[in-house]
Design goal:
The chain has about 475 residues and is an alpha+beta fold. Helix content is about 55%, strand content about 15%. A hairpin with a 2-residue loop joins β3 and β4.
Length: about 475
């Protein structure tokens, strides 16, 4: 028999037993629909993460950090993450741009609103990277020294502003309190001068000949002076004020690449930070440890950073770059590596969803076995006639396999459509809930070609496997006994 004949005979038999065929195919439809819907959710989540990484340019971004103090490393690994280190990182093959994460606290006055937040100094070259390219409205800086500022969604939320367009072109008054060594020393002189003079008047100079007394006296005076110095550093601060123009609103990234509420051109930001320390105690201790405490105020070379961002060539392999960063004495975090770990999680997630769908498909397979076995019992005489006309066991076996394959194919195609319909309904409901909650709506489901092909093949293969035993049983029917049965 030709394959076309096998298809016609199988389809005709299924039409004769409509109810049984409908119930059997319905089982396959439900199983495939469940399989498609669940894997479609996993594929949708993976697609969202991939698009987010790609949109932010995270596949070509690496973060560099100083070594942890509790890690075993040599003298080279103790290198500070300062401007000289940034220059070395920029020279690594495959690195297009290296820029530090340089933030400082500011007080902002906008219209009738005054709030405290952090500002981030950003080079113009970094502002053009994909990480900072999500400008909702407005534009980026014109230059590194422009008196301009880009605000992020965080600033809009803190200032309770709902319309981003209303900010463009508006003035923003920034004020920064800075501490300097000079102001701290003057505070020490003003506060401790008279007290020290009084203690000197009452001092018994004969006691200075005793080494223990002299050592104790020096220690006490040094402690008082240091305490006054730190107190003066934190309280005797100068206020710097400047007016910037809002030129853009940025949809800032989250996570390790988080962006501060205000982005300021790097040269403009230096007008605030080069006049002293911005009141952060860690900056004082960092200057102590690096030996730059008493350097010129505008000397930024010894300034340390908590993080440096590397913008990589998309065609460059991140592992050699990571090894180069480690060789320089720093640790790194690669978003490409994190994405590989996320893919592993999605792989296990999809396997779990597939297992649930396959359980439903195996249940449907039992229905196919039952249908085919009942079909053999009812068609023994037909089998006997076919064999008496010259059909061999192979053709009889193939006839029943084709019939089970037809059940699987029809059920798989209908199941894919029903599964897609379920995902559309679920997606509309989920997006309506997101919109009602004020959350950005995303597409939770995706139906890629590989999932359609996989679902169809699973339905077909499971049906053929389920029909193999009934087909083998039909092939062994004795034609004489079959024709004898009425």
């Amino acid at each position: 028999m030709k394959f076309r004949d096998l298809i016609e005979i199988s389809a005709g038999n299924l039409r004769r037993m409509k109810l049984r065929a409908f119930l059997t195919i319905s089982g396959v439809v439900i199983a495939i629909a469940a399989f498609v819907a669940m894997l479609s959710f996993g594929a949708g989540m993976q697609k969202n993460v991939t698009e987010q990484f790609d949109e932010l340019g995270l596949f070509s971004t690496m973060q560099v950090y100083p070594q942890r103090e509790n890690e075993d490393h040599d003298t080279l690994a103790n290198r500070a993450l300062d401007n000289s280190a940034v220059a070395l990182l920029a020279q690594i093959d495959g690195v297009r741009l290296a820029y530090p994460y340089d933030d400082f606290p500011v007080t902002v006055q906008f219209a009738d609103t005054t709030l405290s937040c952090d500002a981030q100094a950003l080079p113009l070259a970094a502002a053009s990277t994909r990480m900072f390219s999500r400008i909702e409205t407005g534009r980026s800086f014109k230059s590194d020294s422009a008196l301009e500022v880009i605000v992020t969604r965080n600033f809009l939320r803190d200032a309770k502003i709902e319309e981003p367009d209303s900010l463009i072109g508006k003035p923003l008054i920034l004020s920064v309190k800075v501490s300097s060594v000079d102001s701290a020393l003057m505070y020490v002189v003003r506060k401790s001068g008279r007290e020290t003079f009084g203690r000197l008047k009452n001092l018994n100079f004969d006691s200075l000949q005793q080494q223990d007394f002299l050592q104790r006296l020096v220690t006490e005076e040094a402690s008082r002076a240091m305490g006054s110095f730190v107190e003066g550093f934190m309280t005797a601060r100068e206020t710097l004020i400047d007016t910037l123009t809002i030129v853009g609103v940025l949809d800032a990234a989250r996570g390790r690449s988080r962006t501060e509420p205000l982005l300021i051109p790097v040269a403009t930001a230096r007008r605030f930070t080069s006049s002293g320390f911005t009141g952060d105690p860690t900056a004082l201790f960092s200057a102590f440890s690096s030996g730059t405490l008493f350097s010129a105020p505008d000397n930024q070379n010894g300034r340390g950073y908590s993080r440096v961002t590397l913008d990589l060539d998309p065609s460059a392999a991140y592992q050699p770059i990571k090894d180069s960063v480690k060789a320089l004495g720093f640790r790194s975090f690669s978003y490409a590596e994190e994405f590989d770990e996320i893919l592993v999680v999605f792989r296990y997630f999809n396997m779990a969803l597939s297992a649930i769908g396959l359980i439903a498909l195996l249940t449907a397979a039992l229905g196919i076995v039952n249908t085919m076995v009942m079909s053999i019992i009812e068609r023994r005489r037909e089998i006997g006639i076919l064999k008496s006309l010259g059909a061999d066991e192979k053709e009889i076996k193939l006839l029943f396999l084709v019939e089970s394959g037809v059940i699987g194919s029809v059920g798989a195609i209908a199941g894919i459509f029903v599964g897609w319909l379920i995902t559309r309904i679920a997606s509309l409901v989920a997006q309506a809930i997101m919109a009602n909650e004020g959350v950005d709506t995303i597409e939770l489901f995706d139906l890629p070609i590989w999932l359609i092909v996989t679902a169809y093949l699973f339905g077909l293969i499971v049906s053929l496997v389920a029909g193999y035993y009934p087909a083998s049983r039909a092939a062994r029917v004795d034609p004489v006994e079959a024709l004898r049965t009425d």
